[in-house]
Design goal:
The protein has one domain: NADP-dependent oxidoreductase domain (TIM Barrel), CATH 3.20.20.100. With about 270 residues, it is of the alpha/beta class. About 40% of the residues lie in helices and about 15% in strands. The longest helix has 15 residues, at about 80-95. The chain has ten helices and ten strands. Strands 3-4-5-6-7-8-9-10 form an eight-stranded parallel beta sheet. The chain has a two-stranded antiparallel ribbon with strand order 1-2. It binds NADP nicotinamide-adenine-dinucleotide phosphate. The site of NADP nicotinamide-adenine-dinucleotide phosphate has 27 residues, from helix 9.
Amino acid sequence: MLFIEANGAKIPAIGLGTWELRGKTCARLVEQALRLGYRHIDTAQAYENEREVGEGLRGSGVKRGEVFVTTKIWTTHFAPNDLERSAKESLVRLRLTEIDLLLLHWPNPQVPLSETLGALARVKQLGLARHIGVSNFTVALIEEAVAACPEPLVCDQVEYHPYLDQTKVIEACARHGMAVVAYSPVAKGRVKNDQALLRIGDRYRKTSAQVCLRWLVQQNVAAIPRTSKLERLSENIEIFDFELSDADMREISEMGSANRRLTDFGFAPKWD
Ligand SMILES: NC(=O)c1ccc[n+]([C@@H]2O[C@H](COP(=O)([O-])OP(=O)(O)OC[C@H]3O[C@@H](n4cnc5c(N)ncnc54)[C@H](OP(=O)(O)O)[C@@H]3O)[C@@H](O)[C@H]2O)c1
């Protein structure tokens, strides 16, 4: 497994996304993923599956120290006291003493960012989170956050796949030593029948999803594909035995001009 290094964190390049995985299915998939070699699991308070993610971690038999667990604080808990309390509640649900990476799930302009970041940094200082970061932050918000946060931020988790150009966010993260973690990295399954990705994949005997994930990792971006199918767990992690050519990398990057954003809400920031 390759790691993405950022401000002291070593983030396994492929993680399992768990949004919409619930109950026993979630626990079983987390357990299977870890048995197959995954070492990074992405959850969030809003996914309502932290308990099952914790069950899967324990069921796998993989040592706690070998797994990188991310969770995210929901925006209604951004007032400083609420944030610390809700981080502790996440730890209780996960049955962990420390989270590897704790993120602000979305920006929330209702609470001053410096107060929320102060509380997030305090959770780290208390030893409840090894690393902290943000998600769905634009370039302007990254700049504001880096200036206001007393502890280093290690990542911005954002939507990123071949159909969405994220050059600006990637450059902003790089300026501050932060990693980009790509969510919806296989464009919610839409890459499966992409003719260009299939054609490139034929040359390497890889699927279009594998080409897509390799394209992300080869840019030093971590990716957290989600699947509810056991066979796809293996498919999505078997991307470390081939390398895309510069021409292939360029061709896939050019698809970004399509600018197809798949996750957008009324409360989202004004995207770059
Ligand atoms: N920070 C945020 O605001 C945020 C927002 C969205 C997502 N996320 C995180 O990112 C994770 C991934 O994003 P996502 O779930 O939106 O999208 P995704 O991982 O791009 O796509 C998931 C969909 O693609 C299918 N799929 C997965 N692997 C495949 C493969 N190899 N071939 C064909 N289809 C495949 C899955 O179907 P099957 O189950 O049938 O395989 C599922 O329907 C989430 O689970 C969550 O942890 C974070």
